[in-house]
Specification:
Family: Belongs to the NADH dehydrogenase family.
Organism: Streptantibioticus parmotrematis
Radius of gyration: 25 Å
Number of domains: 2
Number of helices: 13
Strand order of the largest sheet: 7-4-3-11-23
Keywords: FAD, Flavoprotein, NAD, Oxidoreductase
Pfam family, one: Pyr_redox_2
Distance between the termini: 78 Å
Protein name: FAD-dependent oxidoreductase
Number of strands: 27
Length: 484
């Protein structure tokens, strides 16, 4: 009949599309089969975690497989945080919203679920999760997510020790929320010191203790010390000389990620800035606004920043997947779980053999540099598995590390070059700008830097961000009139 277009026959190797489903029924009865090197039915790929590995792996899988797979990402946050810029965020050089990448915008075509994966039952090919909606729907608050391939990229959490008072008073430095909170906290301490004549309160407010001498701790210390020194210009009775910053490191040197020469130069720079660096020293307690150190020192302080390493996410222990003695997921060089089909892992939660190391048995260090590159190899290997192709081993030589120590100050050991001071600071910014995902975020970070070069630093503490309803609750619980 004229004007009637006959239906288009399905392309060879593809199954007809099914109507969209919701919830756990999203992947019901969908099993991947391979025929002539093509995936016949959509494979259900579950990515646990939306960090470096999760976001990059999901993006690469989506681009490689298209409609041949349904990629779902479960993340506790709807964004990925670019952690190397947290120190500059805490110092106010970069806006907090510009160091996070929205997952739903980047992962177009993927299903993004904001929630927590509680456990993985790989024997049933099912992950048990909880979302804000499921917790309000009654029952157990749990939902089941069946899968055909699972990528465990849940990352790490701060590795804490049983130090009295640490859980109650310590501040971590792994998330953008912690960076914002730490900045507000430091500026609030300057306000407290400026408004009291009590010597004990003042000393505790102006003493800041950072535990951990790696890149995270040294970078946070350097940026915050520089920011607080600048902020004292605007407090009438607090000077830069009143500030006391203390770095506590259990090892006999700082910055184990770089050579001894660069570490020594950095140590001299910190001490030149009157930063008290305690090597071979441990924090024994931090109760009642007093930090007790293993060398016998007692430091009155209201600020303890904990950056003493990381450990695999607690989810790893709730999975029926092979683990190492340290609690990490045991992977082979292809990033597949050892002796386990259809399960993959990378990043901080995975123990991945370093094939470029001279000593056999060496594992890849938990760093963003490895995580991003592992995500690419992992995604390619998942695609190769679905298509019946050979897998590729992960092999990458660590190119080095860079970290800021304040405005125009830094330390770098990159591509065999060891720098400190202004050149290292420039290298830090150039290298990490090239690694920030999406042109949108690169542009916003550059705009922040240009603006910071033209105008003075902001020194406002927005402490109310942590308790946004406090003012309303006070008003609702009182008899005062709104216009009073």
């Amino acid at each position: 009949m004229k004007g009637v277009v006959p239906p288009r026959p399905p392309r060879s190797g593809y199954a007809p599309r099914r109507p969209p489903a919701t919830g756990a029924a999203l992947w019901t009865n969908l099993r991947p089969t391979v025929r002539h090197g093509r995936v016949k039915q959509p494979a259900r790929i579950l990515v646990v975690g939306g960090g470096y590995v999760g976001m990059n792996a999901a993006l690469r899988l989506r681009r490689a497989l298209g409609d041949d797979a349904r990629v779902t990402v479960v993340s506790c946050d709807p964004y990925m945080t670019y952690q190397p810029f947290l120190a500059e965020t805490a110092a106010g050089s970069i806006a907090p919203a510009h160091v996070v990448v929205p997952l739903r915008r980047v992962l177009a075509g993927c299903t993004v679920i904001v929630g927590d994966v509680l456990r993985i039952e790989h024997a049933r090919r099912t992950a048990i999760a909880a979302t804000p909606a499921s917790r309000q729907e009654g029952g157990t608050g749990e939902i089941e997510l069946p899968y055909d391939e699972v990528v465990v990229a849940c990352g790490s959490v701060s590795r804490t020790l049983p130090v009295p008072g640490l859980a109650e008073t310590g501040i971590g430095f792994k998330t953008v929320e912690e960076a914002i909170g730490l900045r507000n906290h430091v500026l609030t301490q300057l306000d407290i010191a400026s408004s009291t004549r009590d010597v004990e309160i003042r000393d505790a407010a102006l003493t800041f203790v950072v535990v951990g001498g790696g890149f995270a701790g040294v970078g946070a210390l350097g940026e915050l010390e520089d920011m607080s020194r600048y902020a004292t210009r605007h407090f009438h009775n607090v000077t830069a000389g009143d500030l006391r910053w203390v770095l506590v490191e259990a090892a006999d040197r700082i910055l184990p990620e770089v050579g001894a020469e660069v570490a020594d130069r950095t140590l001299r720079e910190l001490r030149r800035r009157n930063i008290d660096v305690r090597l071979s020293t441990r924090l024994e307690s931090c109760e009642h606004s007093v930090a007790r150190l293993s060398d016998g020192s007692r430091l009155p302080t209201r600020t303890v920043v904990w950056t003493a390493g990381v450990k695999p996410h607690p989810l790893v222990a709730a999975c029926d997947l092979p683990r190492t003695g340290d609690g990490a997921l045991r992977c082979d060089a292809t990033l597949r779980l050892e002796g386990t089909a259809h399960a993959w892992a990378a990043g901080d939660a995975a123990a991945v053999p370093d094939l470029t190391a001279a000593e056999p048995g060496t594992l890849c260090a938990p760093s963003a540099q490895h995580a991003v590159r592992q995500a690419r190899v992992l995604a390619d290997n998942v695609v190769a598995t679905l298509r019946g192709e050979p897998l590729t081993d992960y092999r990458h030589a660590h190119v080095g590390s860079v970290a800021p120590l304040g405005l125009h100050k830094g330390v770098a050991s990159l591509y065999g070059r060891r720098l400190t001071g202004y050149p290292a600071w420039l290298m830090h910014r150039a290298f990490h700008l090239s690694q920030v995902p999406t042109l949108n975020r690169k542009s916003r970070v550059v705009a922040d830097w240009l603006l910071a070069a033209l105008v003075k630093r902001e020194i406002v503490a927005l402490g109310s961000l942590e308790t946004p309803r406090a003012e309303f609750e006070l008003a609702a619980g009182s008899d005062r009139r709104p216009d009073a």
